């Protein structure tokens, strides 16, 4: 029992710890998420600043069509100002174009964008205008659509007025130079103009970039896709496209970009220029990558209970998702003071999932061995400057090493090396620390689970034992009932026969002795009956749940019990109906009342039952004006075979039966008594 | 009045004596077949030479106890119609329930006093004497 409590307490502590860790982790992840969201918010802001400065109407609407943002041009075009009034695009669609508009909207939701949507709208002063709309969806970090943005072009006007491109170019130049996006203007895919932001991104000067084919600046991998989209634009199928690609800086490093290309057409509709917006999304991309890694690890940990299973998930998922060259997980072997490799990205395993040629590292050796000792994560940017580094097959220049800690003890180490210097970042470190925390939580939970399962099986065994001993007790009672009672009957019969046979010889003294003998037999019989009743109080076979009318019970007791004339028995008229087993309730009252009657020594006796309803209990009392019970006996009397009065009249079982019944109904019993004056038993039964 | 025949199944010698003496004291001349346990009783019954009108039996007996005997008895398409009455010291609820479930004609608890016992036996015998019983 004590062990079990300790085990449960330990489990509780562990659970608490695990929860705290989980909260910590959640907090750090939340802040990460917030950072990403903030970054996104600022990008949107940039978008808006950018679009607010362009000449075309720009609107942002929510998924219900309510316009939540519009630039000055849009206000002028529609005649509405959302700062002053609400505007829902559904309300301004020209009646004949309604179906077309809805279809286009459906396409927008499905594809994420649509282009060259042409339809008529009503302006505020009921003018009908032709507009051309290019639109795309805006998603939040979870990939949920939060809004749609669109550029609305008034083509009614465009038809009438020739656009002065030179003037526009001048205005564009101002925008372009202030944008935080890299902007490139190209003709036949050769650069003719770049903005400051792009030059900074690429580390080239404006002159260096002039005349360079756009494809030369980006990596091969996206070229095919880029060319495919470009030819579609040339063919007039699309006006704009975007793609993800990787740009190569002057120093050879790369960054991931989200590139949007818009075609600028001449008056014949032929593409004259290509305008590209280049956004460095490396940081965003990495953050998302890490978040995804953490998420997919969290998911893959579910249901895995051993460190081996978890270790393989870590090694594979981390290396694959974060583009690490390797990722190894070591387990601490306390007895031999070494670290044993239990998982490794790309490691060969035999049929038992054991690694072939696994690595062993002594405590304290190398960076991994050191981390196992200190319990502190390490980020080494250049291993050639770290004396701890041990060259394995060849030197790898950066290393990240994070301990897995459970209950303040290092149980394992996650380690990755990379051939490039400065490969691992603080973000990587933070991520791996989170992963290690996750493992710790998962394993602690697993240990707790194991403990719980063990405790449960112990409970089950205990229950089985209890069941068995209960059954044994019942069988025992059964045997007692027969084997002890039968001889008593035989003795009684034998005495009778003896008395009959020797009637002539036996004098009065002898007969008196036989009467005493018979009395003792009766006592013994009563005792056996008492034990049987006591043992069957909690016998489930005979226990029923019914509505018991207490007044009815008392009425019945009145007819069963012998109440001498000089004793007045009373109980209140109003008594409750309680949910219990009638026989037990009857036994309860009968024992208390007959006790009360038995111990009355006064000429005018009084036995009284009272009742009071409490919030959760029924409270009764049975009082008498009998001999009373000394304080020192108040506890003792409830114990089996304890009797205070004349031996022979009582068996000492009655009150223990009473107590057992009350316990059966989660109640309690106590008494107040004054020697010579009387006793009151109070008892409560749970409603 | 016609004589009845009882099969008295009981392992305790004194109990057998008690039953016999009681009948004698009450002036009955009914025939008594005796068996020490269920197994013996079944042997007697399966012979079918002489079948009792009423069976009186104890519950706790060696070899085959009362309940086991009752089960066998009730499975026999012929013997199952002989009324069987339990005579026992056990007022155990479970025993009582099981016995009635198997189909008994009565459940008598042996009182402590011999004189009370005689009174009970008298009532039982009187009752079966006013009954029409099957004579096999």
UniProtKB/TrEMBL annotation, chain A:
Top EC class of this enzyme: transferase
Domain Histidine kinase: 479-687
EC number(s) stated in the UniProt entry for this protein: 2.7.13.3
Family annotation (InterPro entries): GAF (IPR003018), GAF-like_dom_sf (IPR029016), HATPase_C_sf (IPR036890), HATPase_dom (IPR003594), His_kinase_dom (IPR005467), HisK_dim/P_dom (IPR003661), HisK_dim/P_sf (IPR036097), PAC (IPR001610)
Gene Ontology molecular function: any one: phosphorelay sensor kinase activity
Keywords from the named record: Kinase, Phosphoprotein, Transferase
PANTHER family named among the record's database cross-references: PAC DOMAIN-CONTAINING PROTEIN (PTHR43304:SF1), PHYTOCHROME-LIKE PROTEIN CPH1 (PTHR43304)
Name under which the protein is recorded: histidine kinase
Automatic annotation (TrEMBL), chain B:
Keyword Transmembrane: no
Residues in Response regulatory domain copies: 5-125
SUPFAM superfamilies reported for this sequence: CheY-like (SSF52172)
Positions bearing 4-aspartylphosphate: 58
Pfam families: Response_reg (PF00072)
Domain of life: Bacteria
UniProt KW keywords: Phosphoprotein
BP GO annotations: phosphorelay signal transduction system
Family annotation (PANTHER family): RESPONSE REGULATOR RCP1, RESPONSE REGULATOR RCP1-RELATED
Entry protein name: Response regulator receiver domain protein (CheY)
Organism, scientific name: Kordia algicida OT-1
């Amino acid at each position: 029992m004590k062990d079990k409590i300790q085990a449960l307490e330990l489990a509780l502590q562990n659970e608490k710890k695990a929860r705290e860790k989980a909260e910590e982790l959640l907090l750090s992840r939340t802040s990460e998420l917030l950072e990403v969201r903030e970054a996104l918010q600022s990008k949107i802001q940039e978008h808006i600043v950018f679009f607010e400065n362009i000449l075309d109407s720009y609107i942002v609407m929510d998924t219900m069509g309510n316009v939540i943002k519009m630039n000055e041009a849009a206000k002028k075009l529609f005649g509405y100002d959302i700062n002053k009034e609400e505007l829902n695009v559904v309300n301004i669609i020209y009646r004949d174009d309604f179906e077309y508009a809805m279809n286009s909207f459906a396409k927008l939701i499905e594809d994420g964008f649509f282009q060259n949507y042409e339809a008529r709208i009503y302006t505020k002063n009921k003018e009908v205008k032709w507009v051309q709309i290019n639109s795309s969806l805006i998603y939040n970090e979870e990939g949920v659509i939060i809004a749609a943005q669109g550029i609305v072009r008034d083509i009614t006007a465009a038809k009438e007025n020739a656009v002065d491109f030179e003037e526009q170019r001048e205005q564009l130049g101002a925008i372009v130079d202030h944008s935080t996006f890299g902007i490139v203007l190209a003709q036949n895919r050769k650069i003719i103009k770049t903005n400051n932001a792009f030059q900074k991104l690429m580390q080239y000067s404006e002159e260096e970039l002039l005349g360079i084919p756009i494809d030369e600046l980006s990596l091969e991998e996206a070229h095919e896709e880029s060319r495919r989209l470009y030819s579609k634009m040339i063919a007039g199928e699309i006006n704009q496209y975007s793609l993800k690609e990787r740009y190569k800086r002057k120093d050879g490093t790369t960054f991931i970009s989200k590139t949007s290309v818009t075609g600028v057409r001449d008056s014949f509709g032929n593409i004259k220029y290509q305008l590209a917006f280049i956004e460095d999304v490396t940081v965003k991309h990495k953050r998302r990558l890490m978040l995804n890694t953490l998420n997919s690890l969290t998911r893959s940990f579910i249901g895995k209970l051993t460190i081996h299973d978890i270790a393989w998930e870590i090694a594979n998922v981390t290396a694959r998702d974060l583009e690490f060259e390797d990722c190894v997980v070591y387990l601490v072997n306390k007895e031999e003071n070494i670290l044993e490799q239990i998982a490794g990205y790309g490691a060969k395993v035999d049929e038992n999932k054991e690694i072939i040629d696994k690595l062993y590292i002594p405590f304290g050796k190398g960076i991994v061995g050191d981390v196992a000792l200190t319990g502190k994560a390490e980020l080494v940017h250049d291993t050639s400057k770290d004396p701890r580094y041990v060259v394995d097959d060849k030197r790898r220049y950066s290393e990240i090493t994070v301990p897995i800690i459970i209950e303040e003890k290092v149980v394992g180490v996650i380690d990755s090396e990379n051939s490039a210097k400065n490969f691992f970042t603080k973000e990587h470190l933070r991520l791996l620390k989170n992963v290690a925390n996750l493992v710790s939580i998962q394993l602690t939970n697993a240990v707790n689970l194991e403990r719980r399962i063990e405790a449960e099986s112990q409970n089950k065994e205990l229950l089985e034992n209890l069941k068995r001993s209960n059954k044994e007790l019942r069988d025992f009672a059964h045997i007692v009932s027969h084997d002890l009672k039968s001889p008593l009957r035989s003795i009684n019969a034998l005495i009778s026969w003896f008395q009959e046979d020797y009637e002539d010889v036996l004098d009065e003294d002898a007969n008196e002795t036989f009467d005493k003998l018979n009395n003792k037999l009766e006592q013994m019989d009563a005792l056996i009956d008492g034990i049987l009743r006591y043992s069957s109080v909690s016998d489930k076979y005979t226990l029923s749940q019914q509505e018991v009318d207490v007044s009815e019970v008392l009425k019945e007791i009145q007819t069963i019990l012998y109440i001498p004339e000089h004793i007045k028995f009373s109980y209140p008229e109003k008594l409750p109906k309680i949910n219990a087993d009638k026989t037990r309730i009857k036994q309860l009252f009968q024992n208390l009342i007959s006790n009360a009657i038995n111990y009355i020594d006064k000429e005018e006796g009084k036995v009284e039952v009272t009742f009071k309803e409490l919030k959760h209990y029924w409270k009764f009392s049975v009082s008498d004006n009998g001999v009373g019970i000394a304080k020192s006996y108040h506890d003792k009397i409830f114990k089996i075979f304890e009797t205070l009065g004349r031996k022979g009249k009582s068996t000492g079982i009655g009150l223990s039966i009473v107590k057992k019944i009350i316990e059966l109904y989660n109640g309690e019993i106590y008494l107040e008594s004054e020697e010579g004056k009387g006793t009151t038993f109070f008892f409560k039964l749970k409603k | 009045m016609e004589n009845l025949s009882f099969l008295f199944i009981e392992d305790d010698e004194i109990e057998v004596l008690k039953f016999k003496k009681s009948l004698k004291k009450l002036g009955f001349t009914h025939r008594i077949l005796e068996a020490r346990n269920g197994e013996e009783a079944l042997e007697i019954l399966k012979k079918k030479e002489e079948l009792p009108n009423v069976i009186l039996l104890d519950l706790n007996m060696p070899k085959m106890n009362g309940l086991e005997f009752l089960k066998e008895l009730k499975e026999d398409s012929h013997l199952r119609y002989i009324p069987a009455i339990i005579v026992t010291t056990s007022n155990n609820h479970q025993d009582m329930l099981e016995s009635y479930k198997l189909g008994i004609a009565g459940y008598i608890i042996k009182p402590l006093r011999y004189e009370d016992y005689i009174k009970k036996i008298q009532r039982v015998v009187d009752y079966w004497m006013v009954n029409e019983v099957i004579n096999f």
